[in-house]
Amino acid sequence: MLTLVTGGSGSGKSAFAEDRVLSFGDAQRIYIATMHPFDEESHKRIERHQKMRAGKGFETVECYTGLKDVKLPAGCVVLLECMSNLVANEMFEEQGAHDRTVSEVTKGIENLLGQAAHVVIVTNEIFSDAVVFDGDMDSYLEYLGKINQTAAQRADEVVEVVYGIPVFHKSTDTCSNLCK
Fold first, then answer.
1. CA 45 – CA 51 distance, rounded (Å)
2. pLDDT number for residue 49
3. Could you tell me which residues come within 8 angstroms of residue 99 by beta carbon, excluding any fewer than 6 positions away?
């Protein structure tokens, strides 16, 4: 099962995603951390997320690039946080996929789904801004958008968290065949 969780900055998507993982029961929980700790702000954000996960039984796997190569215990439950960081890493880090980012990250998602019982992916809603971008940022938005669309099509659930309130755009429990 794949759940895609999106929302703006500070929307509560991380807390929702963790709760969603916990709802799957006592399976082994793997947290795939994608934020490369490169400055003080990233270290603070990582620390905040570690505190949020404390005592919830998550095992952390750091994966900045190469999601398709991650090996997981069979039947585990995975929380990948976050797709937006992973895409940036693949595009801009030396060992990243660069212009192959979309295909490589998509293969990575399939890799996780082939090993885990449940996968929850957190991504950011950054497409509503009226700002016009060019160059690398325009490419980043294009790649992330394609990956999010592919993940949403593949997902069993797509949830947008708005002000801490989950809005289900696609759900196995409540969606008609039109959503599938």
1. 10
2. 80
3. none
* Residue of higher predicted confidence among 130 and 100: 100
Q: How distant, in Å, are the alpha carbons of 5, 23, 145, 163 from that of 166?
A: 9, 15, 21, 8
> Long-range contacts made by residues 50-54, C-beta under 8 angstroms, separation at least 24?
52/14, 52/15, 52/18, 53/18
DSSP letter for 65, please: S
Residues 6 or more apart whose Cβ sits within 8 Å of residue 105: 67, 83, 86, 87, 90, 97, 147
At position 137, the amino acid (one-letter code) is M
Backbone angles phi, psi at 64, to 5 degrees: -90, -30
Alpha carbons 46 and 48: distance in angstroms, whole number: 5
Q: What tokens appear for 177 in the block?
A: 């065949």
- How is residue 145 written in tokens? 């958008």
What's the chain's length in residues?
A: 180
